[in-house]
Amino acid sequence: MNRKLFGTDGVRGLANAELSPLLALKLGTTAAHVLVARNSHVSFNQPADEGLRRTRNRPTVLVGRDPRISGDILESALISGICSQGVDALLVGVIPTPGVAYLTIRTGCAIGTVISASHNPVEDNGIKFFGPDGYKLDDSVEAQIEREIEGFDSFTRPIGKDVGNIFRKHELIWDYAYHVKKTVRAPLDGMNIVIDCANGAASELAPRVFHELGAKATYVNCTPTGININESCGSLHPQQMATLVKQTGADAGLSFDGDADRVIMADERGQIVDGDRLMAIYALHRAKTSGLPFNTVVATVMSNIGLELALAKENIQLVRTPVGDRYVSDKMRSIGAVVGGEKSGHIILSDFTTTGDGMITALQILQIMVTTGKRLSELAAQMEEFPQVLVNVRVQNKDGWKTDPEITTAIKNAEKRLSGKGRVVVRPSGTEKVIRIMVEGPNETELKSIAADLSELVARRLGHT
Fold this sequence. Notes:
Blueprint: E1 11-14, H1 21-38, E2 60-65, H2 71-83, E3 88-94, H3 97-106, E4 111-115, E5 124-130, H4 139-148, E6 166-168, H5 173-182, E7 192-196, H6 205-212, E8 216-220, H7 239-248, E9 252-256, E10 263-266, E11 272-273, H8 275-288, E12 296-300, H9 305-312, E13 317-321, H10 325-335, E14 339-341, E15 347-349, H11 358-372, H12 376-380, E16 388-394, H13 405-417, E17 423-428, E18 434-440, H14 444-462
Parallel strand pairs: 2-3, 2-4, 3-6, 7-8, 7-9, 12-13, 12-14
Antiparallel strand pairs: 1-5, 4-5, 9-10, 10-11, 14-15, 16-18, 17-18
Helix pairs in contact: 1-2, 1-4, 5-6, 8-9, 8-11, 13-14
């Protein structure tokens, strides 16, 4: 279907404008309505936690959020809608997105919901859903929510004792912390690291988790105020972290984004280690030690061709998907792959998690450093990165570019200029009015020229903003 609300990562927009409390109310009401309608004959499992047993045979939606200021009003509206349908809401407060996915399974909830705009600035926010299995909500369910949302005011609403309950149990965050720590077999004793929490959802958890695993850490951007999330820090701005690694003589550094579902690292020299290199390090190590199922890694069309070549040297296949962790996750599940992700640092290691998890990814890389005795720079050098130029063009309308004859001809001509030694990828953003243009190949000067020509054309044809 042609999605009007849901992008590749839930519903996002300018908080209190595009993503208003009214829209959050509608989403909560409709999601709960669809949940009840789809499961009218299902006997729901009781939550594992004794404190949640006050209701019987009633579905529960788990709700978490990042610390951005608009989260309060959106959470209030969302849970009002949920409870208006006789569905309970379990609020766990500020927690990384992967923590919501894990706790949805752990508590036996019917749906998990995250209020977060991930790496986006504070002005934005989003609402995304996980199914009871901890994976992103099925497309068919999102489609039904879109179809029915405008009729939310006509839904039958229970009264009296049948109205949904609200439970607040932030302490469940430590169940997730325990799960994260269990993924590590070798302690990090003596390891010196720098950690940037982006003033986001990992700010409470990460210091405790890494300390308890034995690491000596320098922490930055771990004091969220509600308005400083992702502000010149985190995975989109890892240079502060990388500089501190050099200044402190640390073994490595890591930067999470606002909801901690992705991580970018830096080696001991302060050189950035992005998601492509992290996938290469993990997959190559896994293949040499415990074995890599189906000798396959899943990545998007945006991953560097250097990843493909590094894996191919060890007879590992790289399968590419459209951009979006949903597509990576779906492909991993369909072919049985255990490693997948994006250059942005959103890595899915399905032995441990159902979605991207920055802390788990970082811990697995640090564990490889400990067990092999190799520096991160040595591990990262297993992959040679080709020059890649990425330009984001803000447009008035991101639809129609695929059928625009001038744009399609320009893309074909750009590919001819690269003579089969590079790639051109043009795609719309799933969350913004942006066309992303990526050009990759051996000559960076030529890449910049191609990207500039394409971006100027796209802006002219689609309306620059």
